[in-house]
């Protein structure tokens, strides 16, 4: 197979699998051949003009020789042929012109870039024939005009199927079939890069894993779109913003300032809330005892007279409010709030009102209930709906009632001391047979506006599905919503149906960008697997639903494959290896090195609710993956498979909610790890912590790949994991002599984000086991292995100079274990931010200290935040909730309440930490917290060449350096003089011994 190793003067090709297909000269993958009209036919010469006057004299005739007669007959025959050719050409030109005129009359302007405008296509309407195995053969060029159902569709060499489109996007074509096979020289087109599909096109892949309707296809199985050597697959939907970021936080209530709820028993008098009509914020809260105090009544009058017009006021009676309620107060309530009932209120009547100041009776909602026998027989309820300046609809509700016999006096007194918020006025007599209740609620209606970084209008449309990523420790706080119409929304706003259950941050918090990703899931080209309503087969022991979805598999030496703005739903097959939503299988070089003038790419795909991975790059080099979303998937999402994949670029992709799978040990969680033993040696029980528990959103099996501006927004284990194969594995085993992965310099790593992962944001460490299970090593093939250490050198040659691996502009926050775990030599992290992780950044050397003095690591110009103002939401599988942060308020916590949070952790070294800032490290009564610390369980040696210099500590850092180890540490420290007392400043090159005692007090 073609590889990226070594110089090459000629593009390398692999012979097609099934035929001798050759690309024609000048072929450009992905480009539709332009349709040109034939040149106009030349008109025949005019007949000679007969002369006027007498006929010329007849000359004497002679008999023609046989040779002369033959020449004359040949000349006549040629003239007749020319005439037929001219007539045929004229007729062809006429019909082509007629075709163009008809297309123009239908409103579809002829465009040579549009595949469905090719006049060579024949209209195809196969109808619904679920038993028909359709075959499109050489020379058959079909335009699918209407929906169809087929047993299968095979497009053979030279055949072509194109989905019809319309200028107004009104077509809706669904093709249902068990599989589509595109063989050598064949093509399937839906739109083109320069003529994007405008209508709705759907391919539904049918079938069960145990279906007898159709035999399995070798190498592809069932329920697939397969592209063999020489095949073409071009799918191009309407171009849309794939994902963006919030620019304003969305609280769990959906309101900009958060929701409000209050309930109280025996809160006598008139209870009042003043709400901002622009933001829904509660501006003022007070109780006026108008039963006992005329002064309270006068104070209420002054307040009502002072409120500006348009302000929202909610009133609710608790117990009784009329004994000392002055007429001037009643007049103010009637005039300013439009009340109709206030003048006739009676003793212990339940009364609630919601209104706008100076809004009149039309804006006033109020209700009164009579008090009889300690009961109001229902609740006085007033509610009005308003809208913030951003268009978020919200309701304001006030209520008041007496309940009869619902609670005993002893129960009421017990409630007083509870955390429910219900309180009792001291000294107030309580009737065991009745008690009053009053309260207020401010809540978003079933619609919320999202403010976004990018202009998504008008490509995001009502009815589309979007997902908001978690900005907390739990990836399960990701939420899906449907877009609603919003005529007044700006180009950077959308309205969603429903309200969030969790806080989604939309700002830079304490210097770290924590804005939630918002992804569009809908596309106008949809490929999905039809699923059973209940689980069946062997996977039911692990999952309670069908996991046999569809899949797309592309084999090597294809002619042209480009996929853009396509939705893939219910794809992937958890029960089978090699069956993924999109799978480039053993394709070699797919860019210019492989002879492709138009490099292969996938762009703007939405892969969601997948049953096995998102996109797999298998023994394929030079692929561009950009603007692609992978959401709610099983197993590694963006997956490099065999450890020899190089030069692939992942640009601006988003992966979130990456769940455990079963295919590989590294996909599995603890339960799956110990229960799947079919490939271990005899009765061996795997160790989850060392062999499994590595499922990652980006699984990068070779360092020579580029990751730029991606987001890993929630995985069961890691967001991004660089793992190092000591040799090629799987189907690639033996194709290259050795991978040299751990010696290969790192590709571009720039501007990536990793958050809400249960283990780590970024891991650079470990390899996989490359031998089968045996008595000597009973572990399963491809389980996680601790042997590899990243040591990049020039040309992947350990004898040549080292090459520093640069991690630039990494943002890592809300990862339960560690923001980044880096093991290896010559690694630089710079311009990065770490916040709200169990440990911000943990560095370990390549494991060779003190024998390998050449390796080193450095962290520069980075920010570490222990606990930020993003306090999270106590829901969505967050396990820990307690006090923390600079404000000492309740918040979600990593690991557990006693886990010592650290910003920068040193494992062995040598490590240099320089020109960096720490903030928000505050200890609590339950735990220590430190800006710089050492590994809690480290028996390895620490080098005296570790160095901290030019560090800045914010006043919110209560402990600068801490060690819970009993080791004696040697370290060079140069700290910022402005942040520490003189006694804590150490000069450079002046080693100081730090014992546990003086470290904890540092």
From TrEMBL:
Renumbered residue ranges of the record's region Disordered: 24-75
Give the UniProt keywords, A-Z. Answer: Cell membrane, Glycoprotein, Lectin, Membrane, Repeat, Transmembrane, Transmembrane helix
Transmembrane annotation, as ranges: 83-104
Q: Where in the cell is it found?
A: Cell membrane
Q: Superkingdom, according to UniProt?
A: Eukaryota
Matches recorded under SMART domains: G8
A GO term from the CC aspect: plasma membrane
Q: What catalytic activity is recorded?
A: Random hydrolysis of (1->4)-linkages between N-acetyl-beta-D-glucosamine and D-glucuronate residues in hyaluronate
In which residue ranges is the amino acid composition biased (Basic and acidic residues)? Answer: 66-75
UniProt main location, coarse: membrane
For molecular function, the Gene Ontology terms on record are: carbohydrate binding; hyalurononglucosaminidase activity
Instruction: Write one Pfam family the protein is assigned to.
Output: G8
Where are stretches of biased composition, namely Pro residues? 36-54
Protein EC: 3.2.1.35
Annotated G8 domain residues: 122-248
Return the CDD domains for the record. PANDER_like_TMEM2 (cd13938)
What is this protein's name? hyaluronoglucosaminidase
Which source organism? Takifugu rubripes
């Amino acid at each position: 197979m073609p590889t990226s190793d070594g110089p090459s003067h000629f593009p390398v090709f692999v012979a097609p699998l099934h035929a001798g297909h050759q690309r024609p000269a000048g072929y450009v993958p992905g480009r539709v051949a332009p349709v040109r009209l034939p040149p106009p036919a030349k008109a025949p010469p005019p007949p000679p003009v007969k002369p006027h006057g007498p006929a010329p004299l007849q000359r004497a005739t002679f008999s023609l020789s046989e040779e002369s007669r033959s020449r004359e007959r040949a000349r006549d025959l040629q003239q007749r042929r020319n005439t037929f050719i001219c007539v045929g050409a004229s007729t062809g030109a006429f019909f082509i012109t007629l075709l163009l005129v008809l297309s123009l009359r239908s409103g579809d302007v002829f465009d040579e870039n549009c595949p469905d405008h090719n006049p060579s296509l024949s209209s195809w309407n196969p109808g619904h024939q679920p038993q028909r195995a359709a075959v499109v053969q050489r020379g058959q060029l079909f335009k699918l005009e209407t929906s169809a159902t087929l047993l299968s569709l095979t497009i053979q060499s030279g055949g072509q199927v194109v989905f019809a489109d319309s200028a107004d996007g009104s077509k809706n074509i669904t093709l249902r079939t068990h599989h589509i096979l595109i063989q050598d020289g064949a093509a399937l087109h839906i739109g083109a890069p320069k003529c994007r599909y405008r209508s709705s096109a759907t391919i539904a892949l049918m079938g069960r894993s145990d279906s007898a309707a159709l035999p399995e296809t070798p190498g592809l199985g069932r329920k697939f779109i397969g592209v063999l050597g020489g095949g073409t697959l071009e799918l191009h939907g309407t171009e849309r913003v794939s994902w963006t970021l919030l620019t304003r936080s969305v609280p769990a209530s959906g309101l900009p300032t958060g929701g409000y709820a209050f309930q109280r028993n025996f809160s006598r008098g008139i209870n009042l809330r003043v709400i901002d009509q622009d933001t829904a914020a509660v501006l003022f809260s007070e109780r006026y005892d108008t039963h006992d105090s005329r002064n309270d009544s006068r104070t209420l009058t002054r307040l009502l007279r002072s409120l500006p017009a348009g302000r929202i006021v909610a009133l609710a009676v608790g117990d009784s409010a009329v004994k000392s309620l002055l007429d001037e107060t009643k007049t103010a309530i009637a005039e300013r709030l439009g009340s109709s009932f206030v003048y006739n209120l009676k003793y212990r009547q339940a009364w609630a009102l919601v209104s706008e100041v100076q809004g009149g009776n039309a804006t006033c909602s109020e209700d009164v209930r009579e008090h009889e026998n300690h009961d109001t027989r229902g609740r006085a309820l007033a509610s009005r709906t308003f809208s913030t300046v951003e268009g978020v609809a919200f309701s304001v509700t006030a209520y008041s009632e007496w309940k009869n016999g619902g609670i005993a006096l002893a129960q009421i007194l017990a409630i007083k001391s509870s955390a429910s918020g219900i309180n009792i006025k001291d000294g107030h007599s309580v009737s065991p047979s009745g008690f009053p209740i009053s309260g207020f609620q401010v809540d978003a209606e079933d619609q919320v506006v999202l403010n976004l970084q990018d202009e998504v209008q008008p490509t995001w449309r009502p009815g589309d599905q979007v997902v908001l990523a978690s900005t907390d420790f739990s990836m399960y706080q990701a939420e899906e919503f449907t877009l609603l119409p919003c005529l007044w929304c700006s180009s950077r706003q959308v309205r969603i149906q429903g309200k969030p259950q969790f806080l989604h941050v939309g700002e830079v918090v304490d210097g770290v960008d924590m804005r939630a990703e918002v992804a569009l899931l809908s596309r106008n080209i949809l490929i999905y697997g039809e699923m059973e309503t209940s689980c069946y087969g062997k996977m039911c022991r692990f999952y309670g639903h069908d996991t046999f979805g569809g899949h797309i598999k592309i084999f090597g030496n294809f002619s042209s494959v480009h996929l853009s703005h396509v939705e893939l739903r219910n794809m992937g097959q958890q029960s089978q290896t090699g069956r993924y939503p999109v799978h480039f299988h053993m394709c070699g070089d797919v860019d210019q090195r492989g002879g492709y003038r138009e490099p292969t790419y996938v762009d703007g795909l939405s892969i969601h609710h997948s049953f096995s991975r998102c996109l797999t790059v298998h023994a394929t080099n030079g692929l561009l993956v950009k603007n692609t979303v992978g959401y709610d998937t099983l197993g590694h999402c963006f997956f490099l498979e065999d450890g020899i994949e190089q030069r692939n670029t992942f640009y601006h992709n988003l992966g979130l909610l990456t769940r455990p799978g079963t295919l590989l040990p590294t996909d599995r969680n603890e339960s799956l790890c110990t229960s799947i033993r079919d490939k271990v040696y005899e009765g061996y029980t795997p160790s989850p912590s060392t062999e499994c528990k590595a499922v990652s959103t980006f699984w990068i099996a070779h360092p020579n790949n580029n990751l730029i501006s991606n987001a890993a927004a929630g995985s069961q284990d890691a967001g991004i994991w660089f793992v190092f194969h000591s040799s090629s594995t799987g189907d690639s085993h033996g194709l290259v002599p050795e991978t040299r992965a751990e010696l290969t310099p790192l590709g571009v790593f720039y501007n990536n984000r990793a958050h809400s992962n249960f283990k780590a944001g970024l891991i650079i460490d470990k390899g996989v086991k490359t031998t089968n299970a045996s008595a000597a090593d009973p572990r399963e093939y491809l389980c996680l292995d601790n042997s590899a250490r990243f040591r990049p050198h020039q040309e992947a040659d350990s004898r040549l100079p080292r090459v520093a691996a640069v991690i630039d502009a990494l943002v890592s926050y809300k990862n339960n274990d560690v923001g980044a775990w880096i093991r290896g030599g010559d690694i630089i992290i710079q311009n990065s931010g770490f916040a709200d992780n169990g440990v911000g950044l943990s560095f370990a050397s390549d494991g060779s200290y003190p024998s390998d003095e050449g390796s080193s690591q450095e962290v520069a110009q980075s920010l570490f935040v222990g606990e930020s103002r993003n306090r999270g939401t106590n829901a969505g599988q967050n396990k820990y909730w307690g006090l923390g942060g600079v404000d000492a308020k309740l918040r979600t916590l990593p690991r557990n309440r006693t886990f010592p949070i650290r910003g920068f952790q040193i494992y062995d070294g040598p490590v240099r930490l320089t020109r960096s800032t720490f903030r928000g490290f505050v200890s609590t009564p339950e735990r220590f917290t430190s800006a710089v610390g050492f590994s809690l369980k480290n028996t390895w040696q620490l080098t005296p060449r570790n160095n901290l210099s030019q560090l800045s500590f914010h006043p919110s850092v209560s402990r600068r350096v801490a060690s819970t180890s009993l080791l004696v540490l040697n370290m060079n420290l140069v700290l910022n003089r402005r942040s520490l007392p003189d006694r804590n400043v150490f000069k450079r090159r002046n080693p100081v011994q730090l014992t546990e005692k003086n470290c904890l007090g540092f």
